[in-house]
Every structure is written in C-alpha cells, then in structure tokens.
Amino acid sequence: MPSSPRPLRKLGFLTIGLFDEADPRRGHESTLEIIELGERLGFDTAWLRHRHLQYGISSPVAVMAAASQRTSRIELGTAVIPLGWENPLRLAEDLATVDILSGGRINPGVSVGPPMHFDEVKGALYPDTADAEDFSYERVRRLLDFVRGKPASDFSGVQGFEVFSDRVQPHSPGLGRRLWYGGGSLSSARWAGEHGMNFLTSSVVKAEGGEGPYDFAQIQLSHIRAFRAAHPDGADARVSQGLVVIPTDSASPEQRAKYEGYAAKRTPRTTSPQGPARLMFAPDIVGTSQEIAERLHAHAAFREVDEVAFALPFTFEHEDYVQILTDMATKLGPTLGWRPGA
C-alpha cells in the first residue's frame, strides 16, 4: 500500500526555454529571468530541458553557467542531457567546471539511447563512427567514473613546462553524488539505483508487461520502489517527480482558459499506451492549489517522494510562467507542506 504523503522537502520547476529563431537572445534571457525569479520565490531547484536542432535549450550547461552567476542559492539541473549526443569525458569537464563556478549547485540529469532522428543526423554527429557508437548504459557509467575522479588517462606528471593530471580537472568532489538518471522503465530505475545515482521520474513512463489496463501512478510507483530497492541508500535514495502542474490561484480568466485548453488537447494521449515504445503520459493537472494538492495526495507515486520538479508547459508566455511560479511558491508549495528556501 502507498505510504502517507510526505511533506514536500524540495520544490523545483522545469523549463524548456523556448526562443524565436529571429531573436534567440530574448528567449534565453527570459529563461534566466525565470530562474532568478525562482530563487527570489524560494524554489530549491530549477531544471532545464535539453533540445537539439529545435528552438529550445541546446546547451543547458552553458545556460547553467550563466544562471550560476546571476543566482546564489538555487540549485541548477538538467532534465535531461541525452548522452547519445555527448562525449562523456568532455561533458564531465564542462559539468565540473560549472559546478565549481556555481559553488556546488549543479544537478546534472542524463539519459541514454540513440539520438532522436539518428538516421538523419548521424552524418553530422558521427560521420565516421555512427555504426560503432555505444548508446547503452555504458555511456552513463563512463560519465560517472570521470565525474567521480577515476583515471581518464594513463599519464600524469610533468612534461616540459606543463603539468598533467590523470583525472578530469577541475575535480568537484560533491558532483558525483548529484548526478541523476532520467528513466521511464523498470530497467532504468534499477540501473540508476545499482550505480548510486539519483532518479528523475517524469510525466512519461513505459507500459511494460501484460495487456493492461495501465495506471500511470502505479507504474511510476513501481519504478520508484525498484530504484530504492536497488540503491545503497534504500528508502532514503533521492527521487524527484516531474509532473505538469498548473496552479490558477492568481490567473486571469484568459490565462485559465488557455491553461485548460492546453491540458485538454493533451488529454487523449493519457488514456492508453502510445506508439511502439508504449509510452504512458500523465494528465496535466490544472486548478487551484487546493485542488492540485488533493489530486497529488491521491497520486500513488507522489505519496512516495519529497522532491518535485514541476514541468512548465512548453508554449506559454513569460507572464504566464511568472504567474504559475508565483502561485507554486506562495500557494501550492505551502499547501503541500513545503517551506521556501532562505
């Protein structure tokens, strides 16, 4: 049976950082302003989606670096970096550098698998090695090793006037404990636990086994429990849930209509598994903070977590995000037992 709801310990939000191709700076500046607002409102974490060859954040590490210099407390994460596009050694260097610059506030979330539309992009991404690239969990393991300080070279010492290290520099000691795996299957949940990572579970999971009917919350709950059963920290292993949640406490009538219309268009995909991967999508939750809290307390998976990264809808305006975040921090969070950061 699900446990009783835990008081919410960490409140976070996730943004895709959309921009107009004709004015990309404005969109990126809006993302940074939203992160600054999140810190002022007391949010614990701000997470960045990762999009390649689209009009969203293609370089979340660079955006985190910029945000780290405009904030002082809020933690900054990625949800998630698809490692099929990355060299784990180079990414480890970038993440450690930004973690040092931020004062140890980075929470990198990653996933594996072939890059989206790989057949169309492999000639540009891996022109000579596409057929040899390994997109399995091994790519995550390499990143973990490099971030955690295992050797990346057989050579260290002095050569001429230069000094060389055999591990990634700079080394950020705490970063290895703040790596997250974004997973939607039982196998990924178990793998993340076995390798001592934290676990990001979103509004998308895989419907695995049997003929259904499938219940999103119960599937997500099974992933959380499988992760913790495999993790050295057991029940204390960190899990963050990322549902789409839109409070309307201070929204205008026009905003409420927009939000309800957005959710309604996305509802049909939540009724059954979608596509060859049999993905199950969680319904978006729109309403007052009290209404949202009631639905979350009835959600079997939410009752098992004390950290969230509520996902902001993709296509809203800057002013909408200001309203949504303000209601999350001042209305919804306290209703869920959360207290804002200092």
Automatic annotation (TrEMBL):
Signal sequence bounds: none
InterPro entries per record: Bact_Lucif_Oxidored, Luciferase-like_dom, Luciferase-like_sf
Pfam families per record: Bac_luciferase (PF00296)
Coiled coil spans: none
GO CC terms, sorted: cytosol
SUPFAM superfamilies: Bacterial luciferase-like (SSF51679)
Luciferase-like domain ranges (all copies): 29-259
Single GO MF descriptor: oxidoreductase activity, acting on paired donors, with incorporation or reduction of molecular oxygen
Protein name per UniProt: Luciferase
Lineage: Bacteria, Bacillati, Actinomycetota, Actinomycetes, Kitasatosporales
